[in-house]
Amino acid sequence: MANIPALAVGAAAILCTLALVGKGTSLANMVRLLSITPKLNGKPKFSFTTITLPMAVDIENRSDQEITMGITSLIVYYNGTKIATTKPTDTSVVIKKYSTSTLSGLKVDIGYLSILSVVKDLPQIVRSGDYSGFLSRISLNITCILNDSIVFDISPALGESKQVQVGDKSANVSGLGDEATGFRAEDRVMHGSLNDYIGLIPDRSELRKRDLIVNVDASVMDTARLMHTVATRYRGDTAQLAAHLRRATLRATLQSIWDFVANHIRYERDSPIREQVRRPLRTLYDQKGDCDCYSTLIGSMLENLGIPYKFRLAAYKGDYQHVYVVVPDEHGNMLPVDPVNEFCFKEKKPTKHIDI
Hints:
The protein is α+β, with helices and mostly antiparallel strands. The protein has two domains: 15-163, Immunoglobulin-like (Sandwich); 185-355, C8orf32 fold, CATH 3.10.620. Helices cover 21% and strands 31% of the residues. It has eight helices and 19 strands. The protein has helices at residues 27-32, 122-128, 132-136, 220-233, 239-245, 250-264, 280-286, 291-305; strands at residues 15-17, 34-40, 45-46, 50-61, 67-78, 81-86, 92-95, 99-111, 138-146, 150-154, 162-163, 212-215, 266-267, 276-278, 288-289, 310-317, 319-328, 334-337, 352-355. Strands 2, 3, 4, 8 and 11 form a five-stranded antiparallel sheet that branches. Helix 5 (239-245) packs across helix 8. The N and C termini lie close together (10 Å).
């Protein structure tokens, strides 16, 4: 499903998780105290099929804490057109407080034939060995992970020092779900014991502080995209459970999933100052969550079952107030799977909606 979106040059969107930071240091301030500079780390290398850009990233840490930062994705753009993506593994660096360190060993392979239509003068560039004009048009989208806790995207140009920017407010969408039902979902009585499913759920020890994910200064659209990312990244949390809940037909499978969530996960609103998207395993062990946690948990099960789905953002009064899963049936009709409602496939018709 959807990944964290690449951003236009000069923009920076932050997708952050709750982290253990020093007293008095807010999450937003922790991220603000970083500057990131991607750079070429040697000459480009050319083969008959590939141009390889050896790269490094300078990270300036202006905070009073030692941090560890890694890069999980690096997307390369030429004049705004994506030409390559790489996903480094086991690449991180420790940056002491008030200092700068370099994360090296990165490289991006760009298929020669795949960019000929974008870089018209590529043959001349390769023959001359002068890559300066080519490199001046390169921009990047970098997905970073800080302290194995904070995930954010930043989009600098090659050689540009970019300070990570976030707004002062979190996405205040904690009212999601309030308008979606005629009864109080918080009052639903749980009918099942999670103990019956413990053998199908990874051990609690796999949970870490990053498991509550927060969208900082984000819209509900950003939150929906983040939910897709979490559902995909942590689909292993529900792999065995999803297989157990599979039934012979699509509708029966969706009903089975709805029954499990409705009977085992209590509805609870988020804090009014911050929208949290729980990792599926966290939702299972907490046995609580709001509509985006419900949707992310269900999305992760559908990911495992190979069932296509979308998150429906629904509005009833003004802005979007609710999110739930919809699944296309064999006729193209969208089936709502919303445990906030009292029945599977029940939907309070929104005045407007968007499926993401």
